[in-house]
Amino acid sequence: MEEKYEESKLYRLRHSAAHVMAQAVLEKFPEGKVAIGPPIEDGFYYDFDLPRPLTPEDLNEIEARMREIIKSNSPFIRQEVSAEEAQELFKEQPYKLELIEGLEQGDVDEHGNPVDEKPVISIYKSDQFVDLCRGPHLQTTGEINPKAIKLMSVAGAYWRGDEKNPMLQRVYGTAWLTPDDLKQYLWRLEEAKKRDHRKLGRDLDLYSISDNVGSGLVLWHPDGAKVRFLAERYWEDQHIKNGYDFVYTPHIGKADLWEKSGHLGFYAENMYAPIEIEEQKYYLKPMNCPFHIEIYKSGIRSYRDLPLRYAEKGTVYRYERSGVLHGLMRVRGFTQDDAHHFCAPSQMPAEIDFVLDFSLKILRAFGFDQINAYLSTRPEKAVGDPERWRDAEAALKASLERAELPYKLDEGGGAFYGPKIDLKINDAIGREWQLSTIQFDFNEPDRFDMTFIDEDGQAYRPYMIHRALLGSIERFFGILIEHYGGAFPVWLSPVQAVIIPIADRHVDFARKVAAELSEADLRVDVDERSDRMNAKIRDAEKRKIPYMLVVGDREMEQGQVDIRRRSGERLGALKVDEFKALALKDVEEKVAG
Ligand SMILES: [Zn+2]
Ligand SMILES: [Zn+2]
Fold this sequence. Notes:
This protein is of the alpha+beta class. The protein has 18 helices and 28 strands. Helix 6 (197-203) packs across helix 14 and helix 11 (348-365) crosses helix 12.
């Protein structure tokens, strides 16, 4: 089991750095008021009420002062105090007084988060600074590496997140165990900014989200749609080859259906308001499952029909608050590459082997070779036969081991209706993204009374497995954009080669080459503009087109093209046929190019 962040040295380090920063800020602004300062992912922040806005120069000064405080190597000393003592200690600090009041009433901790039990009030002292704090901290300020901290930015934040409260200044900092870790982190930030799919989506004209259409609803532009089409075509081919049946189902379904499936019970807050037709309520589908179940139930299923694998790229609608919407990553309408597997108990372990192998193969084809698996098992509150839970968990575990996939176990972390495997990938800059889920369901088959007739002529309950492979195709596209920084592998590139005639007299030859390459199913553009060659090359590089084929007098005479890759690498002149073979091989092998 991996160490929890809250229990790690990094967490204590960042919490400690927040105190050191607060001291440095208060020394600079003795009349300043401090609010809260917790560690967060990759760093920490502290909220201040100061007489004037902080400038970048202030941050430099504060950072320099932090290094001195670190050098003083002062111990962090914990002390428990009574509410009265705390009130006396922080009598100049109205935000702390409010927190103390909360602690006293036992409803919030010192970060303002609700708590169940009335906490003891503790303070931490280090050097010249005392904070209301539960800890934990490092032993001394000297344990912070002064070369591994950095103040990042200042942003406005309302006290307790409530816009009726005063606006405070939130100073963000980051702290790491080593200067090298800090350097890595800053590089990742820089890279993430460059790769941001919202920026690249605009620059490469891949997609947009229009206010006129609505938040969280994606418009796929031609080049984005081309990538999607190519990805889906591969996905479809693989499904057909591997025994899946495609199904298509509507976007809306009657209230009764969602009642029966339980979605109106446990999922209603994520669903859109109903549409009324002929005094019937219809809901936009948040999931495809009940429709697939209805297809299963449209006839009598025998053990000979199983396993059944229904796949659909089903567009679903889920209500997400506007505050959490984020480019393609978090949207309100998206297409799930969904599948449902129905099988007899005796087939179940092999079916899990199959679906895991299949998922890994597809993820790897898209260039994700660092895949992490997570196995979630039975929670305390669960529905379904415990024996089936045990068999399902055993099958999931056995499959992971057979696939030699290291996995993390989340004991008791499964959904109430079944255990699951999640597959997450690491992208090019080391960020983890969840893509696939292989999820047992012991709830829906009961609710819909699904059966199959076994060899003995009796009806039995089949196993049902939900499988999303790429997850949401919108989100997957966002991840793909960021992973490749917009430079899609050759097989997915909207345009694979651009032919660049040097002068007008080369245009006819360029068109001939284009026709020949298109004939071989390569996607080719001719840049016929009268711009200079270098400008055209720069433009093609910006569009992240894998190959640039320059043609001039010599190429025309020899029936050749002069090849550059988008990386700037020059491959020199090749016969058109030779280039064709090279490009087709890159497509076939799905190289990043
Ligand atoms: Zn603290
Ligand atoms: Zn499902």
